[in-house]
Amino acid sequence: RLFSYVAEERLFSRPTFSRFLALLDNYEEVTGHQEKVTAQEREEEEAFLDAIFQTPVMATLTSFFLTKGLYTSEETFRADLRDMWFGLYSRSGGKVLDSSGFEHVFHGELKRGKVSGGHSWVQLYLLERAGTLNYLSYSYDGPWATFPDVLALQYRWGQHLKSIGSTFLGSSPEFDLALYTLCFKTRPDRQCHVSLGGKEATIQTYSWANSFYGDNQRFVASSYPLSP
């Protein structure tokens, strides 16, 4: 097994975790299937944003962006974050709006017999707990002695193989989203080098180039920690 123990009652009752969990049943996991966003699902997205913007890590990121002039206020940053992560686009050649950056990175998708995206340890844990994830092996275990750590691994989601994937392990949703957003805005489509707990980590981001939102802004296509 990938996970031997997770303190669910203590961890998943925290506001950011509980509201993150509420989002994970909102998606059609197979690409090519239209995503239908209900009013309740929009409310769940807003509740999640409410929770993460009350955390120190998002406050730090907001302050950094305002200082650098990327945004004029927390409200404009939050609105843009919502669009870049939750805005829908098509991974099926324009047939249907079947994907978003958040779905791809934090939930994962099944495309052409393989797992695409899927970089949230929480989602991997839930899939394994449900009996639908078969952990096969790992190729990299980061140098951190505590969490968050970085793990590169191979697994099957049902019959779909993830030949190599990577994730932060033991991190919070707000940590992942803040770090990925930082790198997406400052180092889009390339490697983003950061220092975490005195150790070096590298984030790779990709933007979606086939459609846009707002004033020709690009959606998040993917973001994840690289492994050697």
Describe this structure in a few short sentences.
This protein has 228 residues and is α+β, with helices and mostly antiparallel strands. It is built from 8 helices and 8 strands; from the N terminus they run ααααααββαβββαβββ. This is Uridylate-specific endoribonuclease.
Estimated helix fraction: 25-40%
Poorly predicted regions are none
With helices defined by DSSP (H or I, 4 residues minimum), what is the helix count?
Answer: 8
Apparent shape: globular
What structural class is derived from the secondary structure elements?
Answer: alpha+beta
Nearest-angstrom radius of gyration? Answer: 17 Å
Number of domains: 1
Average per-residue pLDDT, rounded, comes to 97
Q: What profile does the largest beta sheet have?
A: 3 strands, antiparallel
What letter string, H or E per element, gives the SSE order?
HHHHHHEEHEEEHEEE
Structure description:
The chain has 228 residues and is α+β, with helices and mostly antiparallel strands. The protein has one domain (8-114, 174-226). Helix content is 36%, strand content 28%. The protein contains eight helices and eight strands; from the N terminus they run ααααααββαβββαβββ. It has helices at residues 8-11, 15-23, 39-52, 56-67, 74-86, 101-107, 121-129, 173-186; strands at 109-111, 114-116, 133-141, 149-157, 160-169, 191-196, 199-213, 217-225. The chain has a three-stranded antiparallel beta sheet, with helices on one face. A three-stranded antiparallel beta sheet has the order 6-7-8. Strand 7 and strand 8 (217-225) form a beta hairpin. Helix 2 packs antiparallel against helix 3 (39-52). The chain is globular. It starts with 7 loop residues before the first helix and ends with a strand. The mean pLDDT is 97.
